[in-house]
Write a structure and sequence with these properties.
Chain lengths: 319, 479
């Protein structure tokens, strides 16, 4: 039987009459990088807190490495909570070492590892600096490093990129990739789709407390209709030539670079291909000045699935 | 348990390395000593105050001067007795007789005392009121002096007139702007009583010498106790010491708990406001976290006790030559297991009780300001033992004290002060078991509140709603 680093089985969590998480089930394979996506208030942080045993589910159960979360299997997990904070009077290396010790490391090993991580993240000059004297970004980096200290088998990072500048975001992406290459399974929540697109093997999207999607990026794009773009001279109107079909056509707003052309966005119906569009345009005698398939965007998938969830379940979260 | 130890060590190191802790640690004994010495310091630094007497003749003035001299002689005798108790070369009877002989030869009190004990005159209380010659003979003329608008010349320079005795009317009257300080008026009352007694006896044909003879023939009432530590039953400081020590322990316990539980409150507020709980709770369990925090601050309080005990013992060792034997015998009872064991149990349980309450309150608050509104009722409860300590001093067997000892939050402080009254063993044991049970209940409730605050983010709003719910009020919706 496969042992999953994390497994959610029918998890429901309520706060009073508010259902924060509804019947969520999914699991993660070893070595995967999973993007845990969802809008604000979707139930991501609550799901993660349930997974870690910080709070108990009202229904269903979670597993970490095949058993219910306990301090024993939590030793294999590094967790970065959404709400950040450290002991402000402790030095950077001591705070990392403290969390390492709580995870079962010896003090000397935790200090050594803390120093290594600080070096790697360009913070070696601030080893003995109190957290209260570090900038907000630096303190956040120290907290991120404290989740890596015991070289965990599973990293759960709740909104790890929020509050970091682009340079540090890139550093963190690199660190996540390195840890994954070492064999660490990584689950991170975010609502910034670019990070998910760059890092994730698989995505789990929840909205209104419900799992709306679980699959690869390719699977995610497949949920969306195919779109392509067509450019014509300014005077041409293609709408009459597509009005009798299932194609949805709209003119895109003009841009300065293409002042003498019009770009059209054409959404293809199920089963149609880009050749069908080209054939119809040529048959209609339309002068084609540009043609490109639109790159699928995760943002569109996200917006579409979240809208669908809000439409279906938005009103029913209060039980 | 190792994780709880790690949490405890972090807590301990966080506070022990703070300069504020050491400042408080050193200031406390200093402030306590100042508190003990303050009444005497205030008395000694009291400025000399002038008073006047308006009378026909000088009967009251003479009686007043005689009364003051008698008082000074009594003070001098007390100083000689005290010095004799320290100085093995000084025989009390011989020294007192020498002092009386000096007085009889016409020496004044200070000179007579200096002959017997050269440095002892310094211990005589300074004159606090000086009789001055009034520059006016009527109250109306003296009013500006009494109100301080005009100064009167006297041995200590120009000063306002503190009081005036007017003996010329139908009844003697004492006038003063100070309506609080009654000592001079009391002195006047006692002098009038003396005068009245003398006049009455004289009118009845009893010579005044007989009165003096009565005073000399009145035997001292010897105070004895069957529980006295001495063979003869003589009551000394050694017999009273357990009461003072018990009250001292109780006060120190209160001071200690009040000093350290604040750390638990501020530490928990820091963890809540800095959002550290989630990081911690994936590494330690809630009971381990609570245990660690309580243990860390307990170690801090043990550090306080150790330093204070070291300072106190050093002081006693340095000052041992000047401590009278009965006081030394009394102080040796500090280590009596009869007092020490209940004190240690009370300290531990009292600390856990109040520590858990402060932890729970801290877990509900994001700022100290928020905590203050929740703390007010707890602080009022914590002040109650202090209010009851004067009762314990004046009447240790009072029924009020007896019943107050069973009030859970007061038990740790009051069970100690009742030990010297030798309550039945079953009662002390029952109170200790009661403390244990209540402490367990408090810890259980505090851990629930702590969980609500740390895990579920419950705050002031939830606390208010819960409190209103107790009175059947509908809770306000939370934003």
């Amino acid at each position: 039987m496969t042992i999953h680093p994390i497994r959610f089985q029918g998890v429901t969590k309520r706060f009073g009459d508010f259902e924060a998480v509804s019947d969520v089930s999914f699991e993660i394979q070893s070595g995967e990088v999973i993007g845990f996506l969802g809008p604000n208030g979707a139930g991501k942080s609550t799901s993660l807190r349930v997974a870690l045993g910080i709070m108990a589910p009202d229904e269903g159960h979670t597993e970490l490495f095949g058993t219910a979360p306990t301090l024993i299997n939590l030793r294999r997990v590094g967790f970065l909570p959404e709400e950040r904070g450290l002991y402000k009077k402790m030095s950077a290396r001591n705070v990392i070492a403290y969390f390492g010790q709580l995870k079962g490391m010896s003090r000397s090993a935790a200090l050594k590892r803390g120093d290594e991580l600080l070096d790697r993240f360009g913070l070696s000059d601030f080893r003995k600096t109190r957290i209260s004297r570090l900038s907000k970004g630096m303190a956040q980096k120290v907290q991120i490093l404290s989740t890596f200290v015991q070289s965990p088998d599973l990293l759960i990072l709740d909104e790890p990129f929020s509050g970091l500048d682009p340079v540090n975001q890139a550093d963190l992406e690199r660190l996540i990739a390195e840890e994954n290459a070492r064999g660490t399974t990584i689950l991170f929540s975010t609502h910034v789709m670019e990070h998910a697109e760059r890092l994730c093997d698989r995505l789990v999207l929840i909205a209104c407390g419900r799992k709306m999607f679980d699959g690869t990026l390719k699977d995610a794009f497949a949920t969306q209709a195919h779109i392509l773009r067509l450019a014509t001279p300014e005077a041409v109107d293609i709408l009459p030539h597509f009005s009798d079909s299932a194609f949805q056509v709209r003119a895109l707003p003009p841009t300065e670079e293409d002042a003498d052309r019009v770009w059209w966005e054409i959404t293809l119906p199920q089963g149609a291909s880009s050749q069908d569009v080209l054939k119809r345009a040529i048959d209609a005698g339309i002068a084609i000045e540009g043609f490109e398939p639109a790159e699928p965007r995760l943002r569109d998938v996200f917006v579409s699935l979240v809208s669908e969830a809000e439409e279906k379940f938005g009103a029913s979260r209060h039980v | 348990m190792y994780r709880a130890f790690l949490v405890a060590r972090r807590e301990y190191l966080a506070y022990i390395t703070a300069w504020g802790f050491w400042l408080g640690l050193l200031i406390t004994p200093f402030a306590l000593s100042l508190g003990v010495l303050l009444p005497s310091l205030i008395e000694q630094t009291q400025p000399v105050r002038y008073y006047a007497v308006i009378e026909d003749g000088n009967a009251f003035t003479s009686a007043l001067e005689l009364y003051e001299e008698d008082g000074l002689i009594e003070d001098a005798r007390a100083i000689i007795r005290q010095q004799a108790s320290f100085d093995p070369q000084m025989q009390e009877e011989v020294a007192l007789q020498a002092f009386e002989d000096e007085l009889a030869s016409g020496a004044d009190v200070v000179d007579a005392l200096t002959v017997v004990a050269p440095m002892a005159a310094m211990a005589l209380p300074a004159e606090d009121f000086l009789l001055v010659d009034p520059s006016a003979r009527s109250l109306d003329d003296l009013r500006p002096y009494l109100s301080g608008d005009l100064m009167i010349d006297g041995p200590a320079g120009p000063r306002p007139l503190f009081a005036v005795f007017i003996m010329t009317g139908d009844a003697p009257v004492y006038w003063s702007e100070d309506v609080v300080n009654d000592s001079l008026a009391s002195r006047g009352r006692r002098v009038l009583e003396r005068m009245a007694r003398a006049e009455t006896f004289e009118a009845a044909g009893v010579p005044l010498e007989i009165l003096e003879q009565v005073r000399l023939n009145t035997p001292d009432l010897l105070v004895r106790s069957p529980t006295s530590v001495s063979q003869t039953g003589e009551v000394s400081f050694a017999d009273q010491a357990p009461y003072f020590i018990a009250i001292g322990f109780s006060f120190l316990l209160w001071l200690l708990i009040f000093s350290v539980v604040n750390y638990l409150l501020t530490g928990t507020i820091e963890e809540r406001s800095n959002k550290i709980f989630d990081s911690l709770l994936t590494s330690v369990s809630l009971p381990q976290l609570l245990t660690g925090k309580l243990l860390g601050v307990l170690m801090l309080s043990l550090t306080l006790i150790s330093v204070w005990a070291t300072l106190g013992t050093s002081f006693i060792i340095l000052a041992q030559d000047t401590i009278p034997p009965d006081v030394a015998a009394g102080l040796s009872q500090i280590t009596s297991p009869r007092l020490l064991v209940p004190t240690l149990i009370s300290f531990l349980l009292g600390y856990l009780m109040f520590g858990s309450i402060f932890l729970a309150l801290g877990s509900l608050c994001d700022t100290i300001q928020e905590a203050q509104s929740l703390l007010s009722p707890v602080i009022i409860i914590m002040m109650l033992p202090l209010l009851l300590l004067p009762v314990a001093i004046s009447n240790p067997e009072s029924t009020l004290l007896h019943w107050a000892t069973w009030v859970p939050l007061l038990t740790p402080f009051l069970v100690i002060v009742r030990i010297p009254t030798e309550p039945p063993l079953w009662e002390v044991m029952a109170q200790i078991v009661w403390m244990f049970s209540f402490t367990a209940l408090i810890i259980w409730a505090a851990s629930k509140i702590y969980r609500a605050g740390a895990v579920h983010g419950a705050g002031m709003g939830e606390a208010r709603n819960w409190f209103m719910g107790l009175f059947g009020r509908k809770p306000k919706p939370q934003n």
